[in-house]
Amino acid sequence: MLDKEIILKTCKPYLKDNTISIKDFNNLYGMLNTTKKNIILDILVENNITLIDENNKIITNIEQDIEDKFISNFDTFLEISKTKKEENNNEDNESDSHSSNEEVENDEETPRIYELKNKQYKILNKTLCTLVQKGKQEAKEMICKKNMNLVYNIARKYLNYYNHKLEIDDLFQAGMMGLLKAAEKYDKKINTAFSTYATFWIKQSIIRTILDTGLEIRIPVHMIETINKVMRESFLLDEKNYNNNEIIAEKLSIPVETVNKSKYLFDCILNTASLDDELGYEDTSTLKDVIADKKAQMPEKIMLEHKLYKYLIKILDELSLRERTIILYRFGLKRDNQTLEEIGKKYGLTRERIRQIEAKVLKKLKAKAKKLKLEDYIDGK
């Protein structure tokens, strides 16, 4: 807890006409963080003591003062950083190093700016946004480096978004473009954290990139939005009502034909295996390889797997969309298998609800398999 009396007593020798310079203020309290400095400043203001900068301008907020100085001296700061880097790469040039150090010490503002360089990742996003909006290329690089983890974590969540073919690096680059878009548009007056504001733009940029370049058949963005709404309503409905497209159309206030089209696009394009996907375990051939060579003699094993695959598709087709999709993701039939929690988040359902659906579907699949006598194929009969 800061003691008011001690603060006033400490400042008294430095007062001139009830004002104290920022230089003297920093000499007294430079070791404290910005929050505590602002508390001290409030105490001074309450006692009619004014803090002024080197141009006799009144300072009302320490953080804002640092930001203003950083922005106004940004080019100087970059030049000093460049000079310092060159000195570190030329340790033998002692005379140049000594001259540069003297230059730094003689400039009252330079030490503060140079100190910020050493703590560049503590520079506020809103400060960097201001510089980005002023066209400073270096600020763009700094804000990208500062927010790399944010962009990467968001990009990683879109690896299984529909059935796209983009890699994590592609999604990351798209996210970075969204981050820079956010920096160009951010207004610190809206009183919203930059990371919260930027998340929207990062997600939008990633999704647009997936839809524009990641799908084998391009679907317009407005149609994707409709498909998302239709499929969400489909999953929320009970299984017995899934095929009742009239209910979905009524809820979304769209034609039944649009619901039918959305489900068709989801099933046939967004939720299907690609021709480039490998056939399966210990077989690196793709569906495209098999289809392209009509004269190729397929081994007995592939024939057997093909029959089993046909039966599997036949069984899965008798499930509701929600049941079928959960099984596909749960057992790795679509890329890597996913946990109950991951599937639940994807469809807005609890982990326990997904487990219940899985148990119900497995019981149903066992009955179907027995009915179709799949044991004969498994045993090689």
UniProtKB/TrEMBL annotation:
Keyword DNA-binding found: yes
The organism's place on the tree of life at top rank: Bacteria
Family membership noted in the UniProt record: Belongs to the sigma-70 factor family.
Described function: Sigma factors are initiation factors that promote the attachment of RNA polymerase to specific initiation sites and are then released.
Protein name: RNA polymerase sigma factor
Keywords, ordered alphabetically: DNA-binding, Sigma factor, Transcription, Transcription regulation
Region (Disordered): 83-111
